[in-house]
Amino acid sequence: MGFHSKLVQVIKVGVILSAIMAAAITAFPIALPNCPDSCGNVKIPSPFGTTEGCYLNDTAVDGDYFINCTSNAYGQPQQMIWNINVISISMEGEIDIQMYNSIDCYDEYGTPLSNINPWLRVPGFRVSVTKNKFMAVGCDTYAYLNGILNGQPFSVGCLSVYNNTRSIVNGTCAGIGCCQIDFPRDLTGVNFKAYSFKNHTQVWKFNPCSFAFIIQEDKFNFSSDYLISLRSNETLPMALDWGDCTCIDLNPNNGSGYRCNCMVGYGGNPYLKDGCQGTGIGLIVMLVCCSWLYLIVKQRKLIKLKEKLFKQNGENSIETAKIFTIEELKKATNKKAKIVDQSQIEQFVNKIVVLSQINHRYVVKLLGCCLEKSIPLLVYEFIPNGTLFEYIHNEKKVSTISWETCIRIVTEIAKALSYLHSATSIPIIHRDVKSSNILLDSNYTAKVSNFGALRLVPLDQTEVATMVQGTIGYLDPEYLHTSQLTEKSDVYSFEVVLIELLTRRKARIDVLEKHIATEGNVEQLKEVANLVKKCLRLKREDRPTMKEVATELEGLRKTKKHSWINVNSNFEETEHLLAKTSDSSKYDVRNKSTEVYDKSTEGPCDVGLR
């Protein structure tokens, strides 16, 4: 069965289960059998009811839960409790009603016109202290809220007096045109009244009335328009808490009172016999199916993205390298890719084509690539013994490498670079030769690695102009100044590595790395130092090629001399390189800009190694 068919089936199952769950939840009975469960668009759950025998009615709370379902003057259903309009009743223990507004109005001469004083005395119901505020609106106004608290009379009030509207800020009820207060929990039998200090004679033009009311806080946002318009609002929304059975404490923030509640995993109306029905298994099934559906859709999107990136990153251009998946790489390494822009993709493909053709024992082998990420990745063979840099600068490790091993390692590096320069189909300049880019396998065989900066040289050219790239300290100074890159730039970097290996930053023969100085043949050391000096000449045309360097080093290993080496004629020069300080001026390639300075306190082998 195809992926599309499976996806369609999972979607169907998810939709069906969702519909079943929704139907089951809405099918829970909320009213007693044979009792209406709504009046108009308002649901009427038990213990409320609209007819005799359908609501809670005992001597303690006689008639409190009766909803009078009538019609208004327009023939529309109207839900009334204690002659107050009902907005909604929730199973969470809240009933929203339209409570009356206390209005105290006067004419321009200060004569009283109307006065409404609301009250609410209903056993078993309490004004919600978490949902409501007591507010007074007016600029010549004070108001009181009265009630019974713990069996004792209780009063609280606020006032607002101001003779103009210039300082009134809409949306703020802070004493100018509007004041508000909280009231204590467990307050019952409430009544409230608005008053005026001077019968609004000084503010009558913009505020002829005082107003006081209890209102749901989220339903009221003060505006200066209310100084007049609230006169037409006879009622405003208020929330009450209901419930008086010994089940689960309803809301400790609202004070005393209890409400029955179904246990976790069950739904329905706990006031009915067998009113709580299990929903846990069905809900779990639905969540599992939804999660499965989400994962499948996500996987599908991931596959499409991988296909897009695969094509974008050169799907048909990689014929000689193995294609790895991102999952395979996650298991093999924790290395992260560096960000590249889209313009580098073509260059990346060209490099893979060339690198995949390299087959040399001293060059780390390219195994393949991964094209499934927005940043394409190269995959090389694993080399277990770390880098040459780690052995050069680690006291414990460097003692494990003999002079014979050192000369073999540098010979192998030279052969690898010579191969890249002259034996590949397109000449390759590494451009970042340094000890940390030389890997050592289990037999301490050198492997040139990290071709992130390599540059391909067209067959009809010997040098290319390019943006300077590499590591300061190893960079060819002429390349650094002119941006003209040739194979001799790698020669320079290689000899810096050779100095680093021989001296570990020391320049004189008496402070060569201890076991090399005692173990190595002094004449060999001098000849290697002489070779280093030739390779570090500032003018690239005066340097030997990498092939000549490799041949010379191989000859040293076999105690033979190449024809262009004249040890005797260079003996003085070699002694100067290894043992003497220099008073001449030299180029310091440790800085990004080139400067001439006196290095009288340093040996000439300390080139860019700090």
From TrEMBL:
TM helices/strands, residue ranges: 12-32
Gene Ontology CC, one term: plasma membrane
Keyword terms of this UniProt record: ATP-binding, Kinase, Membrane, Nucleotide-binding, Serine/threonine-protein kinase, Transferase, Transmembrane, Transmembrane helix
Basic and acidic residues bias spans: 582-601
Enzyme category, top tier: transferase
Reactions this protein catalyses: L-threonyl-[protein] + ATP = O-phospho-L-threonyl-[protein] + ADP + H(+); L-seryl-[protein] + ATP = O-phospho-L-seryl-[protein] + ADP + H(+)
Domain Protein kinase: from-to ranges: 258-565
GO molecular function, one term: ATP binding
Pfam families membership: PK_Tyr_Ser-Thr (PF07714)
Enzyme Commission code: 2.7.11.1
Segments for region (Disordered): 582-610
GO biological process, one term: cell surface receptor signaling pathway
Name assigned to this protein: non-specific serine/threonine protein kinase
Organism: Quercus rubra (Northern red oak)
Organismal lineage: Eukaryota, Viridiplantae, Streptophyta, Embryophyta, Tracheophyta
